[in-house]
Amino acid sequence: MAVSRVDGRDKVTGQARYAAEHPAEALLYGVVVSGTVTKGRIASIDPAQALALPGVVEVITHENRPRLRSFDLFYKDMTAPGGSPFRPLYDDKIHSSGQPVALVVAETFEAARYAASLVRVTYEVEQHETSLVEHMERSHKPSRLKAGYTPPPEPKGFADEMWDKAVVRMEGEYYSGVEHHNPLEMFASTVVRGDDGHLTIYDKTQSSQNSRWYVSHVFGLSKDKVTVRNPYVGGAFGSGLRPQYQLALAVMAALKLERSVRVVLTRQQMFSFGHRPETIQRVRLAARPDGTLTSIIHEALAETSRNEDYVEVVVNWSGQLYACEHIRLGYKLVALDRFSPMDMRAPGAAHGVHALEVAMDELSYELKMDPLALRLHNYADIDPTDGLPYSTKELRACYQQGAARFGWAKRPLEARSMREGHELIGWGMATGMWDAMQMFARASAVLHADGNLVVSSAATDIGTGTYTAMCIIAADAMGMPLERVRFQLGDSTLPVAPIEGGSSHVATVGSAVQGVCEKLKKSLFKLARKMPDSPFASAGFEEAEFAGGGLRLIAQPAHGVTLQAILASACAARIEEKYMMLPNMLKQQKYLRATHSAVFVEVRVDEAFGTVRVTRVVSAIAAGRIINAKAARSQIVGGVVWGIGQALHEETQSDDRLGRFMNHNLGEYHVSVNADIHDIDVLFVEEDDRIVSRLGAKGVGEIGQVGVAAAVCNAIFHATGRRVRSTPMTPDKVMAP
């Protein structure tokens, strides 16, 4: 099924309101004053000039803020890693560059913005450390206390000994620079204060209930006093998993001034909190002359903040992708004077799988073996680390169908063997892998007397198509037209849903939606049996079906009734059911559950300038049953575009003398633009996984990016004979001897 977005009209006509667009009576505007040093303490804050401006209501600092809770536990949101979360305006300590040090609140945004420039702050500066490379020696084993994190498994076999004595082997060090999320919608919170003190908060977040959790705990408010809404989110991709500091600052101002307040961060301030962590990886692979892997060693070192151990699954993929009897994986952190990193699309896998897949390509040249043939030769039918079977795994079909679509069989083995005019042409490929997760969720469904169905859950749509997917699932389950279904999300008062992340929303919330519809159908069937002269009086539930907006006998389709008639007969204005979806963990834990991809890339490299054009991409995806082919393809195309950005453009540059990110704007932080993107072909192989979800679906968000940058890197080598082991692969690196 390929369906256009049900929310599309609202978005293109401007009817969809985002966090900074909700009106409120007598609204105040807050502008954040950002710190200018990296580490130390605030010696003094002088707000006098700001307060003297007409329209300025208050300058809130750590000295005059409202009461906050003191224990770390109250600041931990549902995705917080181990350690002490950042507390905005809590005290005079400076932990990282750009930290908020004050909030100017005024009657107009313009007055607040100008007044913010007049707040005078002096600091006692301490020596900072922001270089991962310079402080690798003080790495530490990380805390395991982060939802979704699994530490590397214990070593299997004798990986080091096997590598030492191998006939064919490779060793490489791979560097991934810092990347920042740059969603179109900047972080914003509009706090609407009711006459009774109730706070209705419109927040840019990937979970309204996570933001409510955070606000109620930090400020000691009852959940009944706080409602958080996020009906529309203009992109997030991990940046909205945790509440960002504008939320706490907006609530502070609303509580202190007893007014409604809006706080919107600037694009520069969007670079002052979490990011994809800087990472250094070392991979060693050994093989027999026929290509059989005999040793896999993958070690990673990543940055974190001084306060928290932000962790990702970086190296574990190397123990799952290829069959091997000897595997050793390692992962450590280095604490730096930076804000805590945070999840960014395909966290851990985007750079962890990249290092492995570039290393596999390097090994293929050592073996003089086709890169795809090497992967197929070491194909894992079970999880190599613990022997678990896959719930489903159609990676082999991805390889075969993707290669056929791309024309991989025509690829010459030697590097620098294809040229057209002044450009060298290269073909590269890589494998992608991501978790197929399912969490806990609730859903409610209300069928109204007019035959319209409203299904609800506190899910989130960050632009990925959640509204549409849930309507499709409900309409399919109820056998009714799509236009008769409406899905409600983005409200903390709705039935509980997990944070929108990890490509798990369809498998989780979608399963809850299907479950509540099944429950509703049974209730409707019971009512239908009680109708006068009911054709279902002596029928069993399995003998009937819901189709065409009604209920009918399977054996006698002409014998049926409309859903409106069922409710009318029962004199019911509406019928409602609720459902709680719990994953079958006893069953699921017996399997390795994952999505897979095979990415094939063509690049053209101008050797004189080192410029790289990605002219053709084929991405073959195995992600279970696809609910909406149109949105799913869009997700994969977006992931491929981001993968090209990771490969060639994106990096936040740090001046470690200042301890500061320097290119904190969209003029200097390079992302892929239309001119960088050419032919992207997406194909979904047939797969249906009833272990991951009752729908057969897995998830298509993250898998679209994983492996793309590696395929680009491998294509660059095939074109030029030059191996680039760090991202982004900018012209200076491509030209390097």
UniProtKB/TrEMBL annotation:
<dbReference type="InterPro" id="IPR036856">
    <property type="entry name" value="Ald_Oxase/Xan_DH_a/b_sf"/>
</dbReference>
<dbReference type="InterPro" id="IPR000674">
    <property type="entry name" value="Ald_Oxase/Xan_DH_a/b"/>
</dbReference>
<dbReference type="Pfam" id="PF01315">
    <property type="entry name" value="Ald_Xan_dh_C"/>
</dbReference>
<protein>
    <submittedName>
        <fullName>Xanthine dehydrogenase family protein molybdopterin-binding subunit</fullName>
    </submittedName>
</protein>
<dbReference type="InterPro" id="IPR016208">
    <property type="entry name" value="Ald_Oxase/xanthine_DH-like"/>
</dbReference>
<dbReference type="InterPro" id="IPR037165">
    <property type="entry name" value="AldOxase/xan_DH_Mopterin-bd_sf"/>
</dbReference>
<dbReference type="InterPro" id="IPR008274">
    <property type="entry name" value="AldOxase/xan_DH_MoCoBD1"/>
</dbReference>
<dbReference type="Pfam" id="PF02738">
    <property type="entry name" value="MoCoBD_1"/>
</dbReference>
<dbReference type="InterPro" id="IPR046867">
    <property type="entry name" value="AldOxase/xan_DH_MoCoBD2"/>
</dbReference>
<feature type="domain" description="Aldehyde oxidase/xanthine dehydrogenase a/b hammerhead">
    <location>
        <begin position="13"/>
        <end position="127"/>
    </location>
</feature>
<dbReference type="Pfam" id="PF20256">
    <property type="entry name" value="MoCoBD_2"/>
</dbReference>
